[in-house]
Design brief:
three-stranded antiparallel sheet; signal; SurA N-terminal domain-containing protein; five-stranded antiparallel sheet; alpha+beta; about 15% strand; 11 helices
Length: about 325
């Protein structure tokens, strides 16, 4: 299986991830979403959406086409992602060097230029850059030392992958049968295994996936390659810290900052897994698989499920 995982190159992996208190719930009029015990106000999302529409012709065109909700979803996803980054930074005692923040924005031509073609404005672009630096630091702390152990299989049809992932979530004993029944790859390789040890440095194409953002016991399904020609369904069984392989520190420095931040976001999701994320139904639902807000659960880009704990009789 490791051969199957390694056959995808790091170059070209598409990443668009940087954009993840119940109390009375987010449906109350003043909240767009609630992350843990932190409410994201409707007014905050609305004000930012207006700023985006004013500065970006493409966004204005979306409004003219009746697609205003798409801009609002991007803004809300960014607000949620920021809460995850801030909480993870606090829990890991990460402090951002403000000089690096301003230098990065300056390299992009200033705040106005850096915010262009995004859901950011001249104020939030600095916040976003801080979050990127937090994600990068989280990635560096884990990239060469994090190992997970999974049972997995691959199928070609995304609908089948999500359905089987849901079945395994409901009944984990089905995983062994699905592994045995999994088809081979076009090259004749077995696309399934049990107790497979996986590290990012050995399987870089998986750097942006939910494998790294969930607790042991979680079932995930996601595209197994860049072209989405096959999907992986995996049960994460263990999450271990291992010693880095000599030379891997140099590898980290050569990885594209966006990919590093994408992996960092997954670490942030793991560190904040205890925070319940509820989105006001007017916007849709949270999709942890790509850190976006989508219209309904059926639009989620992948699958994440935790089997229920059964009480012993």
């Amino acid at each position: 299986m490791s051969t199957v995982l390694k056959r995808f190159s790091l170059v070209g992996v598409a990443v668009a991830l940087l954009a993840t208190g119940c109390a009375t719930g987010p449906a109350k009029a003043s909240s767009a979403a609630i992350v843990g015990d932190q409410a994201i106000g409707l007014q905050t999302v609305q004000d930012r959406t207006v700023k985006v529409l004013k500065k970006e012709p493409a966004a204005q065109q979306m409004q003219d086409q009746g697609k205003l909700d798409q801009v609002s979803k991007l803004v809300l996803a960014d607000e949620i992602s920021h809460r995850l980054a801030a909480t993870a930074a606090q829990r890991e005692n990460i402090t951002v060097d403000e000089t690096k923040v301003y230098d990065a924005i300056k390299e992009k031509g200033g705040a106005e230029a850096a915010a262009k073609q995004s859901e950011q404005d001249e104020t939030t672009i600095y916040r976003r850059q801080r979050d990127v630096l937090v994600m990068g630091e989280l990635a560096r702390r884990n990239l060469s030392t994090l190992e997970i152990v999974i049972d997995f299989f691959q199928v070609q049809d995304p609908k089948e992958a999500k359905e089987k992932a849901a079945e395994v979530t409901a009944d984990p004993s089905k995983m062994s049968r699905f592994i045995q029944e999994a088809p081979r790859t076009t090259g004749g390789q077995q696309a399934s295994a049990t107790n497979q040890r996986v590290r990012v440095t050995e399987n870089p194409s998986l750097v942006h996936t939910m494998l790294w953002g969930v607790k042991p016991g979680t079932v995930v399904a996601f595209p197994a390659d860049e072209q989405q020609s096959s999907w992986m369904v995996a049960l994460v069984k263990e999450r271990n810290k291992v010693s880095p392989t000599p030379g891997e520190e140099d590898l980290i420095e050569r990885i594209d900052p966006q990919l590093l931040a994408a992996f960092g976001l997954r670490i942030a999701q793991f560190l904040t897994a205890d925070l319940n994320i509820e989105v006001n139904p007017r916007y849709g639902v949270w999709d942890p698989t790509n850190a976006q807000v989508v219209g309904n659960a059926g639009e989620r880009a992948g699958f994440v499920g935790v089997p229920a704990v059964k009480n012993k009789s």
